[in-house]
């Protein structure tokens, strides 16, 4: 399945739904697709349980980051946990900025739809319209395919050439050069995988179509109009405590990386509050035409449905532009609609989740690439403990 793999996210969701009575506990269930009945009341016990576990995990650095849970405009939880910088003993707070890793694609998708709104491109345009010396193998690939993960362009993040250059200032052309001449992948190899190469190309197309640099376009078209005052295309010289330091594991600082080497595949930093504002602008059609928001949150490629197995967690699942869209299984055949995206890279991980039927937002930003809470026996311990208590 796509990237919704953090058990920590699963814990928070299961705790919330099981105890608040919104839609039944996560997991289990049969293949029915009855729609869950939303509840406007939130049981305070669910939030208390989440707070207690987050406080415990934060005190031992098993989770470091910031969590926001908000329902229909009401803040249920907004806290920082653990250290933004362990060496300097600077704590994470709700105002701490984190690199948002692959959530950057949500901003890229919105940018391209706004450019389409302005008549400067269409998502059906071949990407080669905007890329000089485009390989012949890319001629049939459209902009849309960059976001529904069907371009079959290979990724580059594990290539030795990229690993050698990522700590240095890098141009978009240099990044594209890493994968430009590599053969396309077979369909089954990339079908549900996030691909940083797609987002690099999206950023480059944004520049060519807008006539601005990637960062300038985001700032003038999205960040400023939406008053995202704590969101930026990351600069390397920003002082602490504004930004969290990234860790591969608690105590192990992530390798240095220049923001330009991340580019459109992860170079944006933000806070949980700004991401909530961003989400609500899309949901409430506060930016661009109504068609822009609708297109972002409409399935354009279906991974699985009732006629195909979606695994234990979903009745159906597909991808919009920058968002995965599905129906999760609950208890007793109930289901709930979910919009989400998440990912991790270079010392940071992030999850952006919205349940439209419950008007429930859950946003998690962490300055650890892979938290120990997600792996090994701890996962089973937490899962068993939570479901037993529910």
From TrEMBL:
MF (Gene Ontology): hydrolase activity
Entry GO terms, CC: membrane
Signal peptide range: 1-20
Record key words, sorted: Hydrolase, Membrane, Signal
Domain Beta-lactamase-related: 66-370
Subcellular location: Membrane
Pfam families: Beta-lactamase
Entry keyword Hydrolase: yes
Name of the featured protein: Serine hydrolase
